[in-house]
Amino acid sequence: MVFAQFIFLVIFISQFYDNAECISFFHFTQDPPPVRDIALMSRYIVHHSDWATLSYLGNQSFMDGMPMGRVYSVSDGTINNSSGVPYIMASPMDLSFQDVVKTKNCSLVLSLAQSDYCKKKSYDPEDPRCAQLTLTGKFVKLDKDDPEWNVAKTALWTRHPVMRKWHNLVPGHHWQFAKINIEHITLIDTFGGRKYPTIAEYFKATPTFNYWPKLRHSVITVKKNVIIDEEFIN
Ligand SMILES: *[C@@H]1O[C@H](CO)[C@@H](O)[C@H](O)[C@H]1NC(C)=O
Ligand SMILES: *[C@@H]1O[C@H](CO)[C@@H](O)[C@H](O)[C@H]1NC(C)=O
Ligand SMILES: *[C@@H]1O[C@H](CO)[C@@H](O)[C@H](O)[C@H]1NC(C)=O
Ligand SMILES: *[C@@H]1O[C@H](CO)[C@@H](O)[C@H](O)[C@H]1NC(C)=O
């Protein structure tokens, strides 16, 4: 009995040390584009967001059909390459992932309140000038042989460097990549109500990256339960 408790303790503590905390990601410095350019503004919000809230219909027995949400890390490309397609990495052990793979219809909600922009401008997160975007469409799990699997992997692993360690840090999770097939875009970026950029306008818009004064790289070191993310200038 005492031995069993000892084994339990060893397993429990080792799990604790496997937990990883990422201290910083990349830092964006560019201001948003002018509000009249709604497609470019939408692309700016997507590319500059490290995370977003995925809304979907729950399918767990106790709340089948109820609206649910979960935060995911997102990326639409490497730091200087934006595709406009939001990718996520998730595990099939995650109940939200299980539900949305079945129920499919979903919205991804992103806000500039998630960067330091609104705070710098003293905009409350509900202030329309603190721009927010809702991408509505279908959740699509990517196939391992689909060339887009690697596109998603590069997009996420470069922007969230700790993710490339999740296979080892949290083994047995069978990490997957997925994307949102966007069908509707709803933007609020100033006073006067919602705006609806078309899908064609959204994908035609070309964000520029020449505002980068310097590229920053990240080096990740795992020390016990803390990941030290050191940045240095290229
Ligand atoms: C992005 O930056 C990387 C590293 O500096 C470079 O190799 C790559 O060509 C750049 N891509 C674009 C689209 O500018
Ligand atoms: C930018 O991303 C697209 C996919 O969205 C890819 O086809 C292209 O090769 C990438 N360019 C660079 C320089 O990485
Ligand atoms: C949700 O779960 C129930 C019960 O398992 C199932 O009958 C229903 O079809 C599911 N909904 C969707 C959209 O898959
Ligand atoms: C998903 O949305 C479409 C409209 O785009 C609708 O026809 C369909 O019934 C929805 N599916 C579910 C499971 O609610």
Automatic annotation (TrEMBL):
Gene3D superfamilies from the UniProt entry: Electron Transport, Fmn-binding Protein, Chain A
> Is tRNA-binding tagged as a keyword?
no
Which InterPro entries would you find in this protein's record?
CREG_beta-barrel (IPR055343), Split_barrel_FMN-bd (IPR012349)
- Please tell me where this protein is predominantly located: secreted
**Its family?**
Belongs to the CREG family.
PANTHER family from the entry?
CELLULAR REPRESSOR OF E1A-STIMULATED GENES, ISOFORM A (PTHR13343:SF17), CREG1 PROTEIN (PTHR13343)
Report what the protein is called: Protein CREG1-like isoform X1
Species assigned in the record = Aphis craccivora (Cowpea aphid)
